[in-house]
Structure formats: structure tokens, C-alpha cells
Amino acid sequence: MHEKQLRALATKSFVVMFTVIGFSFCITKYNDSKIYVSAEHLNEQLSAALTNEPVDVKQYTNSSTGEIVNEIGDNYIKVSKNSMNDIQIKIKDNYMERKLIVMIDNLDEKIYDKQAVIFSREEINVDKISLNYKFNEETLKYCAVFEFTLDNVYVQTIYEDTEDFYIELKNPHEVYDKVIVVDAGHGGNDIGTASNNKRFVEKDINLNVVLELKKLLDEDSTYKVYYTRLNDKKVYLKPRLNLANEVDADLFLSVHCNGSEYISAKGTEGLYGSPKDTSGSFTSKQFAEICVEEVSAALKTRVRGVIKKEDIYIIGNSKVPVSLVELGFMSNNEDMEILSNKDNRTVAAMALYRAINRAFEEIDEAKP
Ligand SMILES: [Zn+2]
């Protein structure tokens, strides 16, 4: 063997050796970072605690999956079980108001007071709790209803041990890779635009399309989706925008219909802006283009293209990629023919769902 070949061989074996070492290191790291541990592992740790230095092992169980964890996040609300066994916990996330409703059901008496709750952080304190009781006439049991005013939007996971419930609070992106805010434009006494015959108002069409879109997004567990409204109520622009900015949405989609004094104006249009935070390389413009492409192809409407419109409040102040889609013109009879048909609104929702999927493909591609 030549010296050159020998050297090459030596280099190769070094590479193999380091790869093996590196790989095993990664596996060890991976095991360390896992939160969920088996009961066996816990027992090992417990017996270690008995024989050696004390190890602080708390056994929490995920209330919905039954999985055991030995550690939960830094941010949580602890609610005492008050030594009762057959009680049930339910939570409702009222994220638009940053309110979390925690219900402890099946109580024989009004046993709770606000002191039964402990927060892991000072930001959420006892002033931000309200407590009410509901009495169930059939079961003759009480339900304690706590309402917490939180400082942000959180994803909650409930854990329990023998003494307490723990509601862990995490930022959406700590739990989900893909976070979306979907906004049905207008609502309540803000009707938006209307058809020429006044039989249809924009707020209803927007909501209908968003509710159809929700059905599709609900099937997809990879997405965490927040909706600015899911019924006919007035929502101001600021809370819509704040939601998207606070959850640091990957995509902010606002669904609207257009109107014009020129009845010949028709087609699908996308409005966009330049996000104030330019950390991502996927732009509002790209998102708006994808939305217009998908919607106009599906509804067979004219492609009007995309327009930069930073004077629109939710667009101009968005820190995340935002697309405001104008599905069609309610002032145009041809477009209105399409929009007034319920099946077409489902088709529009499917098109927006495809647009979201495509946008995430492009976001992934744009990642370094
Ligand atoms: Zn509108």
C-alpha cells in the first residue's frame, strides 16, 4: 500500500470513529431531553433516591393521555384537589380575551376559595382570579368555576398528582411548529359590504367560509389555529391583530369579500404588507399570491392579483406574514352568483386550506 492510500485509510477510520461517537452522544442527548419517562424509569429513580442522595421526583400524570412525566414546565397554575377523589377538571381557553376558565366539577360542597390556587409566576396573581359556583340540580353537585386573566395566549396541558391539578401554560410555538391565525372579517353590527339586492352581507359569507375552513383545519393536528371569531359578533381590529402578533403566527389569514361602486369590477384579490419583523424569509406577498391563485382557480373567478395595502390596520401593523383575501366582489352579479352558492363557499374554504398547506411548504423550503 502506498503511503497516500494508508493516509486515506487512516482518515476514513477516524471519520467512522467520530461519527460513531457523535451518534451515540446524540442518542444520549435525545434521551435526556425527553420529558416522558416510563414508570420503570421512575421506580429506578425512586430507589436511587432511597439508597443515595435524595432525588426530587414528582409523579405527574397527563390528565388526558395518562402518561407519567417527572417534570412540567416553569409556567403553571396549581389547583388543589382539596383531598377529594371523584372530582373532574375541565378547561376552556377563551384566548381572544386572554381568559382561561377552569371548572372543577362534582363537588359535594362549595369547598374552594381563591387560595386553593397557586401560580408558578408572579405575573398571574390572585387579583386576576374570579370564582363562581354552579349547582347541578340533577346530580346535586357543585362546580367551581375559576376564571383566570392571563398575560398572554397559552397552550394548556393538564397534569395531576394525588394532591393537585397542574395546568401547564406554554407559548404556542413551544408546543406547535405551525401556528395560524384565521380571521373572518367584520361581524356583529359591522356587516362589511353587501350584495346589490341586499340579501347577502359580507360578514356572513366570511364567517361561513371560515367555519368550513375550520372543519378542514380541525382534521390536521400539525396546525394550531386561533380564530378571531367563530360566530356573528363584533370584534375590533386591534384584538384581531394582537392575537396574530402575540402568538407569533406563521400565517395570518383574513377572509373578506370586496365591494365597488363600479359594478363591473370583479375577481379575487389579495392584500398584503411587509411584516415589521423580518425574521422569516416567507413574505406576506408570497402568501397573498398563493391565496389568490388557489381561490380564483377553485371558484373560477378573475385573477386580480395582489396589492400592497399597508394603510389597512391589520396589514400595516402585522409582525407576521399576513394575507387579506377578497374572495370576490359582492357588487358584481357574476361574482355574487358564485358567492351566494353555499357549495362554492366550501370550495373557497378548500382552496384556502390548500393555500395554507402550500405556504407552509414554502416556509419550510425558505428555512436555512
Ligand atoms: Zn371586508
Briefly say what this structure is.
The chain has helices at 3-33, 39-51, 172-175, 202-218, 237-246, 284-299, 313-316, 333-339, 342-366; strands at 60-62, 68-69, 76-80, 88-94, 99-107, 117-119, 129-136, 141-149, 155-160, 164-170, 178-184, 223-227, 251-258, 268-272, 303-308, 322-329. The chain is of the alpha+beta class and 368 residues long.
How would you describe this protein?
- α4 crosses α9 and α6 (284-299) runs antiparallel to α9.
- With 368 residues, the protein is of the alpha+beta class.
- The radius of gyration is 27 Å and the shape is globular.
- The chain is built from 9 helices and 16 strands.
- The protein folds into 2 domains: 72-170, Alpha-Beta Plaits (2-Layer Sandwich), CATH 3.30.70; 174-366, Aminopeptidase, CATH 3.40.630.
- The strands form 3 sheets. The protein has a 6-stranded antiparallel β-sheet with strand order 2-1-9-10-3-6. The protein has a 6-stranded mixed β-sheet with strand order 12-11-13-16-14-15, sandwiched between helices.
- The chain binds zinc ion.
- Zinc ion is lined by residues 185-186, 192, 202, 256.
